[in-house]
Amino acid sequence: xxxxxxxxxxxxxxxxxxxxxxxxxxxxxxxxxxxxxxxxxxxxxxxxxxxxxxxxxxxxxxxxxxxxxxxxxxxxxxxxxxxxxxxxxxxxxxxxx
Length: 97
Known about the structure:
By secondary structure, this protein is mainly α. Helix content is 58%, strand content 11%. 28% of the residues are buried.
């Protein structure tokens, strides 16, 4: 589980569990009790690799999960920074949290 900051969607509980290297029952338990970033939409479980990576980092480091890709996009849309500068700023912000 290593994201390049862009990640990819995860569709279906099997794909989510495979990416997280856990069983489907564990993922469902984490969704219910640990705020694991997955939800059911139209009968299909969905998630995203960047969200799963951020969740794991938060659990290991004991701090809030931050989706760097989402933060980068927010910075880009609310500033005049280019994509690379926004990504560097997002990474700096996450390190300071």
